[in-house]
Amino acid sequence: MFYNRDMGGDVKEKHDMPAKGKIYLVPVPIGNLGDITLRALEVLKSVPLIAAEDTRNAGFLLSRYEIPPPKLISFHKFNERSREDNLFSHLESGQDLAVISDAGTPGISDPAMDLVHKAVSKGIDVVALPGASALLPALTASGLNKGPFLFLGFLPRQGKERDQAIKRIKESFCPVVVYESPLRLPKLLKELYEKMGSRQICIARELTKMYEELIYGDLQELSEEGKVTLKGEFVLVIDSAPPQDGIDLEKAQNTCKMLVTEGLNQRSILKVLQDIYGLKRNDAYQLLLITQNKIGEKP
Q1: Of 3.40.630.30, 3.40.50.2000, 3.30.950.10, 3.40.367.20, which CATH number belongs to 135-238?
Q2: Secondary structure class of 81 (helix, strand, coil)
Q3: pTM beyond 0.70
Q4: Using the 8-state DSSP alphabet, how is residue 12 labeled?
Q5: Is a pLDDT exceeding 90 seen at residue 247?
């Protein structure tokens, strides 16, 4: 069944498409309750059902903003599979649904990601509201933002997948943002230093809360025991990789800029960066993205 949506979020019906409810992804404050938006409050007041990671936290939030509580249903990583049928039945009946996480924007490192994927495949309209998130405040305050960045969320805890994630951080030509818990932070910092060497990093702790803290330094220093207070939620912004040995990165950047400006196709530019300057394909592609961003081109 075919459908599309205009800029206002309205579904254009094709082939007598039956009316369905919408999923609203509603950001909630990550600490400071003043950070909620007027639109978020309007949606939470109007929907008949809210799916929340923790219904107790959601109840407190609604009470704080004097919103009469609609029906609340828990939706978290331990019950998402069993809950999805109920949520989609609700939507198929034409009723709207709001989804909220414990803090921040749903759909980033939480069960809402899979829910949205399935909703799109079912032709259900998804409306994402802008709002609170730990990701962008940490990045913009880090002093490491260079335009493009790589967001990895929470890294895998062990095994090959974790090794691959750390390799991506090590080789990235742009800053990398990751989330981490206080219990696992010391291990991650030591592991990054051991596998990458020293690199500039910003550790954001308890963003928007009373004990908010931004810690600037390098991995060698901050991986030492006692350098970081292990309380609260953490966002790490890790600087991009230094130039590869034997590679004149400045010349590669200038050549890339010239070729993009002249309108050479992406495949040819990547070949030049790899063959002439010795860049790995992933590194060449990241350099191309950064260059396009700087001169206002689209990938």
Answers
A1: 3.30.950.10
A2: helix
A3: yes
A4: E
A5: no
